[in-house]
Amino acid sequence: MQAFEYVRAQSTEQAVALLAEAGDQVRVLAGGTDLLPQLKEGRRKVALVVDIKFIPELNELCYDPDEGLWLGAAVPCYRIYSHPVVARAYPGLIDAASLIGGVQIQGRASLGGNLCNASPAADSIPALIVHSAVARIAGPTGRRAVPVEAFCTGPGRTVLGPGELLVALHLPPPRPGFGAAYLRFIPRNEMDIAVAGAGASVQLDDRGETIVAARVALGAVAPTPLYVQEAGAALVGRPVAEAAAAFAAAAELARAAAQPINDMRGTVAQRKHLSAVLTRRALERALARSQESLRGTAR
Amino acid sequence: MIAHKNQTLVRARINGEEVAFFCEPRQTLLEVLRDTLGLTGVKEGCGNGNCGACNVIMDGVLVNSCLVLAVEAEGRSITTVEGLAGPDGLHPLQQSFLEHAALQCGVCTPGFLVAAKALLDHNPHPTEHEVRYWLAGNLCRCTGYDKIVRAVLDAAEKMTA
User: Choosing among B69, B117, B145, B152, which should be mutated to test the A contact, i.e. which has the most A CBs within 10 A?
Assistant: First the structure.
């Protein structure tokens, strides 16, 4: 591996100052499951690695039924699904956190890192988008918030400017009648990169009869994870009794939105097909969870 | 941390012993365990987190040591395969691997043993499905996995009997 300096940052302010000073030869280290292979490949000169996982606010995982989930950018996957309250409140997020790599990867890899690495096939990003997650960013001129669907700008590229650091992801609290899910297609059972992935969320009214909001997002079918706003919008106001027809229509919108490429993992035709099938199935699972959540409140 | 020339002094607890070593920031934990500390039970397979041959337990969490910088080990507690056997002999998992012939060439075995130990530390009564899922990040090109899964299930049974 190429030689570099290593600093264990103690505060967000210190990390931002280090990032701003070092220019384009600095990389942020959280779990390192993407960064270390990249450093070993040595395609880019790196002079400084800033370890951010000892900064308290980047390691915070806290859930409040009114405030939602604060997910520090360096929190590894295993802490998310091992947290019983978080796992119960956000099963759609757990879908993604528990299928990234194997347990060895989940012991280190963070969703913040998954987002900043900005792979088009990142498993957690569609799940974050359908939860309306917001990225909280600190930088030399202060703090800002960016919706996750606007965070990635291209393969490996994000909205983060010089000196900017992802601090946390914020997810709104799930209301009764909310459900979400993430599904991916891979030729193996585990440990593979998505051929295509789909996240979906559904919000029902209090009576569980009508869809009042929905979101759909796709992975591995565009240069960035793709928020398919029109697929969610098409579901608003639709009665649950007609969910099958509504989901089929939303799945067609997802198929139309997908702009995949042919590569070693799949073809354009297969990925278009998968976009529709996975969207329909993710919506079905999200609906089942939203109905479960209403049964939970009625009890 | 103390820097010395381009070396950093790292203090960690490895297999229950306090250890101090010098390393460069660019060295992985895998390199230091093998080349500096002589713990050659830790194997290098792929070097990019796909095969699990370099698995160690760090502060109770299973990790690929090829994807950890050695400087990150500062203040951490690490278990390698060398830390499994006790003064009375082999760990029940190691004994079970022998009895079930759960290895052939043996290169993946330390990683499987450490991963299996991490599983049983968390979940003393895993189902076959849970064992297979947990070991998905460990590759073996000889055994076809079945004997490994049987060995882990049998060790779990004996350890909780």
Answer: B69
Q: Is residue B66 part of a domain?
A: yes
- Is residue B61 located within the same domain as residue B107? no
Q: What is the CATH number of domain A56-171?
A: 3.30.465.10
B136–A1 CB contact, under 8 Å: no
Q: Give how far B130 is from chain A: nearest CA, Å.
A: 11
Fold for the domain defined by A178-292: Enolase-like; domain 1 (3.30.390)
**Burial (0-12, 13-18, 19+ Cβ within 10 Å), A140:** middle
CA B120 to chain centre: 13
What are the φ and ψ backbone dihedral angles of A292, each rounded to 5 degrees?
-60, -40
Helices B146-160 and B92-99, packing angle to 10 deg: 140
Q: Are strands A134-139 and A165-171 parallel, antiparallel or unpaired?
A: antiparallel
Nearest to A80 by CA among A65, A53, A60, A52: A60
Residue from A103, A186, A193 to probe the interface with B (highest B Cβ count within 10 Å):
A103
Give residue A188's pLDDT.
87
> What's residue B2's pLDDT?
54
Domain residue ranges in chain A:
5-51, 56-171, 178-292
Together in a domain, B66 and B97: no
pLDDT digits (tens, 9 = 90+) for A68-80: 999 999 999 999 9
CATH topology of domain A5-51: 3.30.43
Q: How far is A107 from chain B (nearest CA, A)?
A: 6
8 Å CB contact between A164 and A73: no
The 10 Å CB-count burial string (b at 16+, else e) for B113-124 is: bbbbbbbbebee
